[in-house]
Specification:
Layout: H1 2-8, H2 11-27, H3 31-56, H4 64-80, H5 86-108, H6 113-133, H7 135-138, E1 144-145, H8 161-183, H9 186-196, H10 198-203, H11 208-234, E2 236-237, H12 244-257, H13 264-278, H14 286-300, H15 304-341
Antiparallel strand pairs: 1-2
Helix pairs in contact: 2-8, 3-8, 3-9, 3-11, 3-12, 3-13, 4-5, 4-6, 4-11, 5-11, 9-11, 12-13, 12-15
């Protein structure tokens, strides 16, 4: 059992997951499954963005879905109305997400806890209204159609499902790698100190506003780039993409997987996505399934699947540590006695 636990928490497990992602198109029963997995990877990138500001920094951003929609609309409008190619528009989507995140962050992050959450909820609703009502810019309720797909290179054509799947997988791996580096850096430890207590972090000399804004900007950049990828694959977007329900979907993925963990966003997104596919024929009753599931999860696994596993493993290792220390003392004592008698 201990070997299994150590393997699940080891870097080797991440290599196994990467290999599974690479091999998935070879074992998938249909191209539709590959398409669904690619969409799940896109949403996972957005969930990782929310994990930065909420999981690591402790600030609940309820406008995250709005920034996701901003990234999608940036690509849609730049490619359709202004004739940009996808990749320049993709970079612009990330920049726009970062700039707007900075502007919203320097205002909203002066508030704390539920006041911050309420403020960002209003921001998300404003984003939705602007997208729906500003017809001259966003095309209003008609949406944006015929969005340019990512340009391929050589024989690679990203308009095909499998090449696009590997493109999204690449960005997902890059996103996870970047967050793993951040979480182990001084910046990541600063975020965690802020999550624990603003007063404690401030007493350590941490600039609260600067670090909170940095976390917020990283979060909205992730959301914007994820939305840009979605626009590149579906090639049609509408105002419904900015609805608050998408933010709550992202929060659900994060809570199920494990808030503040490295692999939690991926686990939660994939699990909920495939459960949704399994009950697709009962779409009207979807919340009847997910409602009790979330209630049970919050009660018995408040840290999510990955968070609960890591907590349980930590307690198991801690409980075995005194026994090992006791056995080591006995062995040392026997050795000393043997040396004395010798």
């Amino acid at each position: 059992m201990d070997r299994v636990l150590n393997f699940l928490a080891s870097p080797a497990m991440k290599i196994v997951l990467l290999a599974a992602g690479i091999l998935f198109p070879l074992v998938a029963s249909s191209e539709y499954q590959i398409y669904v997995m690619a969409l799940a990877f896109i949403w996972a990138i957005a969930v990782y963005g929310l994990n930065i500001i909420t999981g690591y920094c402790g600030q609940l951003n309820l406008a995250h879905g709005g920034f996701f929609a901003i990234g999608a609309y940036a690509v849609g409008l730049l490619t359709v109305d202004y004739g940009w190619a996808f990749w320049p528009a993709f970079i612009a989507a990330g920049v726009i997400g970062a700039v707007l995140g900075f502007l919203v962050g320097i205002v909203s992050l002066r508030l704390k806890e539920h006041y911050f959450a309420i403020f960002t909820l209003c921001v998300g609703f404003i984003i939705y209204l602007l997208i729906e009502k500003w017809e001259e810019l966003t095309h209003g309720t008609l949406g944006v159609i015929s969005i340019a797909p990512p340009e391929g290179f050589g024989l690679v054509d990203f308009t095909e499902t499998i090449p696009f799947y590997y493109l999204v997988l690449f960005f997902l791996v890059l996103a996870i790698w970047l967050i793993s580096r951040i979480s182990r850096s001084l910046v990541g430890r600063t975020f965690l100190a802020i999550r624990i207590s603003d007063d404690l972090a401030q007493s350590l000399g941490i600039n609260l506003m600067r670090n909170k804004v940095l976390a917020f900007v990283l979060s909205t950049t992730y959301a914007g780039l994820a939305g840009a990828l979605l626009a590149g694959v579906v090639r049609f977007i509408g105002p419904d993409l900015a609805e608050i329900t998408h933010t709550f979907d992202v929060i659900t993925y994060l809570l199920v997987g494990g808030i503040g963990t490295l692999m939690g966003p991926l686990v939660g997104t994939l699990l909920i996505t495939w459960i949704t596919q399994a009950v697709q024929s009962f779409e009207e009753y979807r919340m009847i399934v997910f409602g009790p599931l979330l209630v049970v999860l919050v009660i018995f696994m408040p840290r999510g699947i990955v968070g609960t596993f890591l907590t349980w493993r930590g307690r198991r290792l801690a409980s075995k540590a005194p026994a090992k220390q006791s056995a080591s003392r006995v062995e040392n004592k026997n050795s000393e006695e043997a040396g004395t008698h010798g």
